[in-house]
Amino acid sequence: MHPTYTHSSLLKAATLSLLALCAACSREAAAPQAAANDAAPSTAAASASLETRDANGKDFKPAFAGQTRAPGLKSEFPIDVAVVAKGLNGAWAFEFLPDQRILVTERQGNMRIVGKDGTVSAPIKGLPKVYFEGQGGLLDVALDPQFASNRTIYWSYAEPRDGGNGTALAKGVLSADDTAVEKVQVIFRQMPTFQSNLHFGSRIVFTPDGKLFLALGERSVPEARVHSQDLNSHFGKVVRLNLDGSVPNDNPFVGRSDAKPEIWSYGHRNIQAATLDASGKLWTIEHGPRGGDELNQPQAGLNYGWPVITYGIEYSGPKIGEGITAKEGLEQPVYYWDPVIAPSGMIVYDGSMFPEWQGNIFVGGMASMKLVRLQLQEGKVVGEEWLLSDRGRRIRDVKQGPDGAIYVVTEAPDGELLKLSRKS
């Protein structure tokens, strides 16, 4: 049996969980729409911020210029949006196979393959059972860096357990006929086990040195979220693992009796967007509460503040904790949104189809129903673009295709896989 948290307030927590179900997806109204298929090159003139709504943190001030509400950018060239596949049910993540077919996860527990002609396969067999309630289910998927020779895939999911649930990371071998995963191993389990249907985090990022990062949520409810600051808990952490799930000996907390050695960084809320840039540095974007979505660049052993500091407030209106946005020893986000975009899935673009976008971050917006582009300069955000606002779809994941186009998957019972390419 897995260790569990037992609280006299679990029943109350469950009720709070139901009330807060949209916590990682935002309860805020969608932002004003931007032009449908515009995109801004680095030479485009900046304008006022695209965000015109009042901030939720009414007396919160950014720690430095440009930390929020960067100038809006507008395209100087058109893009084409094509539907690659339709009929996806609760899609959460996708990954390109070497032959350019696409693996897609659906939260209820299915993994499918989208063919080059847009056909969607039957569910792949052999996956473990998932906890499919609230925000739980089958979540991220990623290919082993040596997939071409070992056919190994990794996936994260909400795992049902005695006494609760938690995020787990598994690996397995995709069968030669693509119909099943074999030799399945669960290589990491978030601890402690806890009864909540919220904030599972869950993005997998492989690194050039043969390691991987896994982003983990803090389970949302008040008695759980404080453990983002607890080094003996995996709640609200980024963990770093070897590809077999063992702990790298150069992790920042290895050898400490008061810390789990898997931990890379802590003080996070609910990370559902993570990627590497061209230099191999990790970037993440995490859900804030009501306001305070954060772009961070998590570094070894550092504390990113949640829930001690935040640019968001409780969904019910009060400030969180002491109501502060900065404190010595706690890291500031590179950028934040208030109101939120409800971020999920991200890339740092490095393709040739859009040379103007080299080094730009793209992140999916769920409640905001748009694709957000961030222009960076010397590690800071200097401009923001909103794309796909006209489609009114929750964007759950973003990938750069082998062709240099940008692909997104929308989250709905009739979800779509979309391709953004340069219009000739």
Would you give an account of this structure?
The protein has 424 residues and is mainly β. It has a domain at 32-81 and 139-147 and 189-422: TolB, C-terminal domain (Neuraminidase), CATH 2.120.10. The chain is built from 3 helices and 24 strands. The chain has helices at 10-19, 147-150, 222-225; strands at residues 38-39, 77-88, 91-96, 102-106, 110-114, 138-143, 152-161, 164-174, 181-189, 204-206, 211-215, 238-242, 263-265, 270-276, 282-287, 293-296, 335-337, 343-348, 361-365, 370-377, 380-387, 395-400, 406-410, 415-422. The strands form 6 sheets. The chain has a 5-stranded antiparallel β-sheet with strand order 1-2-24-23-22, with no helix packed on it. It has a 4-stranded antiparallel β-sheet with strand order 6-7-8-9, with no helix packed on it.
Q: How would you summarize this macromolecular structure in one to three sentences?
A:
With 424 residues, the chain is mostly beta strands.
The total of helices stands at 3
Helix/strand/pairing category: mainly beta
How large a portion of the residues is in β-strands, by DSSP E? 25-35%
Find the CATH topology of one domain: Neuraminidase
Q: What is the level-2 CATH architecture name of one domain?
A: 6 Propeller
Helical coverage, percent range = under 10%
Provide the residue-averaged pLDDT: 91
